[in-house]
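Teaching assistant's notes for section 4

Start the section by putting this record on the projector. Ask students to predict, before seeing the second block, whether Transcriptional regulator, MarR family protein, putative will look compact or extended. Collect guesses on the board.
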Amino acid sequence: MKNDINIEEKIIDTVRELSKTLRFFDRKSQNNTGVTLNQCYMLDLIRENKIMPLSDLHERLGIDKSTTTRLIEPLLKRGLLEKMKAEHDKRASYVVITKLGEEVYENARTRSFKSIGKVLEQIPQNKHLQVVESIDMLLDAFNVIYKRPVAVGA
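Reveal the predicted structure now:
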């Protein structure tokens, strides 16, 4: 029997399923920690940079400005981030992560590692690196074609 697989269709279907699964994982994570994966990425980026201009956040995260605002507001209200005005330009704002923000981030990170550990238990150990390499290869190809800005941790 001839293998009639359409690889483009298979990749699109797989990426779609991965996206749906990650959204489900995001909702589950939010139930446990009170922050979404995107909010965690934001906390991580700000934590790594110590202080972050609000104007840079959307580009560094690869999301729209309006999405950045929607993600950051609950973090400010919960006291996980603090907003500051620039001394040299009162129109410019910066954000810094608070001690509480650091604690929530570390809790979310620990829970994510545990969750990913459970997922990895479902995959043969000798295939773990292959999974990472395959996802990295696909991401690199997308980033070359679509010139996506470098995101958190890259």
